[in-house]
């Protein structure tokens, strides 16, 4: 793919939203030019494409859009889940969207959105409390555990979070669960979430995840585009 026709991904290395977008792009074998950024030094080019200033942002060159009348045709994707679904809609060799079942994607989106609505605020509050050694960390951890318990039940009943087959749900939730596990590593290692720990370790130890987490030179420093 020529550079002027490749999508451009603005990404932050450890941002869970950016991680899951990169994972979906990798799963879809979708080549993009990656521009690694820092939130305190955002490229003007990114802000011009997406004034809200958060990552990930996927900028589609017009030459890559094809028929602009199709529902998915757009110049900029500003939400990680939209990037994931777009990439896998182009190519889904692992069938993460469960393409044979038209009801699967809406159900997966609902699971992901419910998780985001409940777990992510609890995760962020717990992470801040742990960082600043506040007195209520145990209470805040338990708020997160409400969702962990649900996921443990799912993994007791099936191999992955949506079914016995890997899906969009797995890679969408993965970075947030990784972030949680890193807040208090010793506690998580000793916790009773046996299935969830095994599921998480399976991803984190995989060569694919190592590729997702590869470090790139900050684009504002080098102005050098690299393929992801």
Q: How would you describe this structure to a colleague?
A:
Residues 67-74 have low confidence and may be disordered. This protein has 2 domains: 3-94 and 210-227, Glutaredoxin (3-Layer(aba) Sandwich); 104-206, Glutathione S-transferase Yfyf (Class Pi), Chain A, domain 2 (Up-down Bundle), CATH 1.20.1050.10. It starts with 7 loop residues before the first strand and ends with a strand. A 5-stranded mixed sheet has the order 4-3-1-2-5. It is of the alpha+beta class. It has 10 helices and 5 strands; from the N terminus they run βαβαββααααααααβ. It has helices at residues 16-27, 44-49, 80-90, 104-131, 137-157, 168-183, 185-190, 194-204, 207-212, 219-222, and strands spanning 8-11, 33-36, 57-59, 76-77, 226-227. Helices cover 53% and strands 7% of the residues.
């Amino acid at each position: 793919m020529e550079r002027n026709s490749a999508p451009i991904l603005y990404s932050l290395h450890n941002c869970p939203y950016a991680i899951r977008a990169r994972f979906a792009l990798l799963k879809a074998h979708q080549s993009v030019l990656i521009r690694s950024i820092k939130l305190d030094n955002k490229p003007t080019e990114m802000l011009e494409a997406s004034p809200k200033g958060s990552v990930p942002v996927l900028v589609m060159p017009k030459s890559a859009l094809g028929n602009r009348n199709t529902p998915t045709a757009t110049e900029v994707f500003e939400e990680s889940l939209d990037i994931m679904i777009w990439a896998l809609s182009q190519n889904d060799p692992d069938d993460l969207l469960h393409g044979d079942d038209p009801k699967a994607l809406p159900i997966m989106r609902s699971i992901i959105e419910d998780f985001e609505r409940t777990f992510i605020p609890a995760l962020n509050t717990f992470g801040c409390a742990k960082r600043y050694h506040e007195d209520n960390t145990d209470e805040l951890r338990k708020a997160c555990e409400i969702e962990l318990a649900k996921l443990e039940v799912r993994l007791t009943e099936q191999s992955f979070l949506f079914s016995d087959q890997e899906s969009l749900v797995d890679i969408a939730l993965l970075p947030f669960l990784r972030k949680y596990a890193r807040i208090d590593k010793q506690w998580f290692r000793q916790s009773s979430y046996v299935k969830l720990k095994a599921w998480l370790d399976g991803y984190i130890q995989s060569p694919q995840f190592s590729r997702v987490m590869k470090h790139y030179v900050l684009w504002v420093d080098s102005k050098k585009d690299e393929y992801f």
